[in-house]
């Protein structure tokens, strides 16, 4: 498919949403990343997502009903699963213990990095290695801390591109931070080392309707003539003054220069479980079903003391 073809996809809700709600004492289940049955070693669907306790691994027979949750990595969030030639790679944001539990403590600055683990069976995992740490001025905010997060690994004809979020923007009506910039790095191997592009590839735009506060996160697919990205920008609504997040479709010829493909978001806040924010997603093409699957998480209220985040699914066909 070419980049322009992604704008022709018709998206529908296949059934009841959300498909996965927060477990136990956690108010969130967020940032899903999925392996399809044709990609997995056991013919099952696999989903990785985080709660306030860390990154969890789920299994499913149909991609909708999820079971057998395993807390895989503590003090971690925003995972991405990638199938390489000889192993599966799990990338995720690693933060200091307890930091996610106390977002109101502004004096305790955020600090995180991106780690990677490899597995050949999705059950036994190698020891973690640091894939990317904050290293440039736009990875840091003097008042809020330093962060690299939301990894997305893409295979190209010459190697691998790593898209990631960096730095922080404070969201006043939520009481926590969201990612400010999106960057890119290159490597010949999925496990690195990665060469970081010196400037962000996407940054917030004060004039943008959907991205005037933060760039959020992006999931990138390779197309025949470049790349497409599904990005959840962070914004302040000019009418209500409230924050929000919506998933935008973007296109690029080289992975560095990104244009908005369609002005209206693919998904935006509506009501109920996705009343305030529609956040990070993962998109996969399911060849047996001849359809795109877009898993995403959404929030039902603004402030961290009230809102809950769950995971939903929409499907698309050309």
What does this structure look like?
This protein has 318 residues and is mostly beta strands. 0% of the residues lie in helices and 53% in strands. Strands 6, 7, 8, 9, 10 and 11 form a six-stranded mixed sheet that branches. The protein is globular and about 45 Å long. The N and C termini lie close together (10 Å).
Brief account:
With 318 residues, this protein is mainly β. Helix content is 0%, strand content 53%.
Q: Tell me how many strands there are.
A: 22
What is the number of helical segments per DSSP (H or I, 4+ residues)?
A: 0
Percent range for helical residues? under 10%
Residue windows where pLDDT falls under 50 for at least 5 positions: none
> What fraction of residues sit in β-strands?
over 45%
Radius of gyration over all CA atoms, rounded:
18 Å
Query: Main sheet?
Result: 6 strands, mixed
Question: Could you state the order of secondary-structure elements as H and E?
Answer: EEEEEEEEEEEEEEEEEEEEEE
The helix/strand class is mainly beta
Task: Reconstruct the topology from this structure.
Blueprint: E1 10-12, E2 30-35, E3 45-51, E4 54-60, E5 66-74, E6 76-83, E7 88-95, E8 110-119, E9 129-132, E10 140-141, E11 145-146, E12 148-155, E13 160-171, E14 176-187, E15 195-196, E16 214-223, E17 226-236, E18 243-252, E19 258-267, E20 277-286, E21 291-299, E22 309-317
Parallel strand pairs: 8-11
Antiparallel strand pairs: 1-22, 2-3, 3-4, 4-5, 6-7, 7-8, 8-9, 10-11, 12-13, 13-14, 14-15, 16-17, 17-18, 18-19, 20-21, 21-22
